[in-house]
Amino acid sequence: MDFDKLIEYELEISSRTDTGNNSVRVLQDTAGSTRTGVGSTVWDAGIVVAKYLDWQVSQGKMDLRGKTVLELGAGTGLVGITVSCLQPETTVLLSDKKELVPLLEHNITLNEPQGTVSAICLDWCIPEHRERITGAPDLIIVSDGIWAKELHSHLADTLARLAGDNTSVLLAYETRNFEKEAQFMALWSNRFRFHDIKPTDQHPVMQSEDIFLFSGSLKN
Questions:
Q1: Of 136, 146, 181, 220, which has fewest CB within 10 angstroms of its CB?
Q2: Rounded to two decimals, what is the model's pTM?
Q3: For 141-183, what is each residue's pLDDT tens digit?
Q4: CA–CA separation, 116 and 92 (whole Å)
Q5: Which of 212, 35, 73 is nearest to 155 (CA)?
Q6: For the chain, how far is it from start to end, CA to CA, in angstroms?
Q7: Alpha carbons 105 and 46: distance in angstroms, whole number
């Protein structure tokens, strides 16, 4: 991947406890020059999720230290890298298709996080890839991952396979097609209970009426 053709996106966060530098930087491919698909772009839902996590941590409402966080369909890695920068004691695993792993690894290096953060190939459509995750994560993050209807069942199956009894799932999407989104939520509800995250619990500025956040867990 030719990183010289990519452009940088910078997100301000409340505080990086690892370096004191209050920002996360990632390269993205807005022009499609790398032919790696939509995952190589920073999307608004990812920004809202990253700022939600930043707000929750800075307000003392969320503590991920000592826990394991898995981001599915991580793309540029903005959300997961933000978690690692906010709380370096968290183990963060970024996952996406094979062609996006080099970008994820580069963006990890770009931020020089002090914690444990790595990138792996995990394709939802290949069940064997799920075996690459050992142990149930404490938190699974999916940001803007339900836009393609043909991936709905693969994502739902992946979440059900990887989640444990104590796993929380943070799912977010920007609304584009209500019918397709409702179909995924109905599919997800077969094995998970979930509730929406109210705007009052999100970052007071970095939120949108078109972007919805949900917190879910496996049904008993």
A1: 220
A2: 0.95
A3: 999 999 999 999 999 999 999 999 999 999 999 999 999 999 9
A4: 6
A5: 73
A6: 44
A7: 18
